[in-house]
Amino acid sequence: MELLHVLLAASYILLVSFSQSSSMCQGKTLPYMTPDVTQISGRSFDYIIVGGGTAGCPLAATLSERYSVLLVERGSSPYENPYVLDKRFYGFPLFQTNEFSSVSQSFISKEGVSNLRGRVLGGSSAINGGFYSRASDAFVRRAGWDEELVKESYKWVESKMVFKPELTKSQSAVKFGLLEAGILPYNGFSLEHVEGTKMGGTVFDHDGRRHTSADLLETGNPDNIVVLLNATVKNIIFHKKGTENEKTVHGIRFIKSDGNGSQTYEAYLKQLENSGSWGDVILSAGALGSPQILLLSGIGPKRHLKNFGIPLVLDFPEIGQEMVDNPSISVLVESDPEAQLPDPPQIVGIADDFKFIVQGLILPISINATIIPIAIKFAFPASKGKLELNSTDPRQNPLVEFNYLAKEKDMKECIKMVQLVERVARSKSIAGFLGKEHHSNSKSPHELREFCKKNVSTFYHYHGGCAAGSVVDNDYRVHGVKRLRVVDGSTFLESPGTNPMATLLMLGRYQGIKILAD
């Protein structure tokens, strides 16, 4: 119980200090934020961004340099929440979930795999392990991005919210465990996606305070951004122009996120000053949120929309397709819950021609107990699934199926994953940190397959649903619809680098600059 008392005392102190500091920040540099939907209802903006997450915040900050921006976030502000901002509480939001207001929203795939999505200003950058690492050069080339602008956008993010971590004892043990397992060479501190073992960047500063994508709003023009909190977008407003198969976006409809009412409010796009053109509604609601909003707006497979009584705007079978989640296997090297301070990952192993990503961490499972998993993911799964509506209430999760290990290729790679992660878990370095050895019985090929089937889980890097090429073009405009873009992980065909956070932060800045240039 000693850890519980320490954390509760720290929680009270931090809650007071964070509330005071966030109040001062909001008066000076952060844009105006309000949960009052009536203040926004009926107003018009140059750009409307749906989702104040990892990509949405840097996008809003960048566009505000020249245009008025409404940023709509279904969750609350992170700045009064020490469980988000303080490293000592890393992982607490992952087990503190509820239906409408928790900063993490849980969901379960159709295969029965538990998962999470961010529901707070800052999105998943406010609840994840804070590990920062860029995409590979090959990923950037496959995406067709301007390589110089990509580098500039990464550096812009890194100058504001990325730090070199101070290696902890547990992460030092993970580092040497990875090297013992043959994940070589050791590349030291690097933000690049390089094979071997390395220390990555972190969004936790040297005082242990988390910096989320919401902090990037401070770089924008505060007079040009309004952040609407605790509001969930219900659907997109269209008016028809030109040919029947081309629709034009006019604005959004939204409701309160608290689940206590269904009254609908509206906000609209306006014509840009000194220009004959208009801005856009930009969906940055994530791999579940963005395709869900398109479906609720009548853009999607005709038969599926008819089942929910949603008027068809555009028959678009590709919406909700290409859903991918990287299959993961975790081995608990300390399965008896202990009272240790949580410790997010600082070290990563990148192995077998970039196919496998390995990390270790100390993860809380309750307010006074932690476990120590060594986790591995397969970076390039062939198995794909789909997303469909479960309800016409946008506050409810859609149905999602990832088809983990459905392809034989993925099952073969999972068997290799189990063997590699077991080598790391059995290393002398991990045993020395724990003060005891991890024993693992060798498994037959059949037992390895069954182990994969029973233990496959998520690395929380799911993506797809609005895939680049089939749903959006090179400028991230939705095919067949005017004034509508999608800028988030739903457009990814694969998960970039060790994890997508760095690249999503970069993408928000990158696309903002591209739009300003247009």
UniProtKB/TrEMBL annotation:
Domain of life assignment: Eukaryota
The UniProt entry, under PANTHER family, shows: GLUCOSE-METHANOL-CHOLINE (GMC) OXIDOREDUCTASE FAMILY PROTEIN (PTHR45968:SF19), OSJNBA0019K04.7 PROTEIN (PTHR45968)
What organism does the record attribute this protein to? Answer: Populus tomentosa
Protein name per Swiss-Prot or TrEMBL:
Glucose-methanol-choline oxidoreductase N-terminal domain-containing protein
For molecular function, the Gene Ontology terms on record are:
flavin adenine dinucleotide binding; oxidoreductase activity, acting on CH-OH group of donors
Q: Where is the signal peptide, in residue numbers?
A: 1-21
Cofactor field? FAD
Q: Which UniProt keywords apply?
A: FAD, Flavoprotein, Signal
Source organism phylogeny: Eukaryota, Viridiplantae, Streptophyta, Embryophyta, Tracheophyta
The keyword Isomerase appears for this protein:
no
According to the entry, every stretch annotated as the Glucose-methanol-choline oxidoreductase N-terminal domain falls at: 286-300
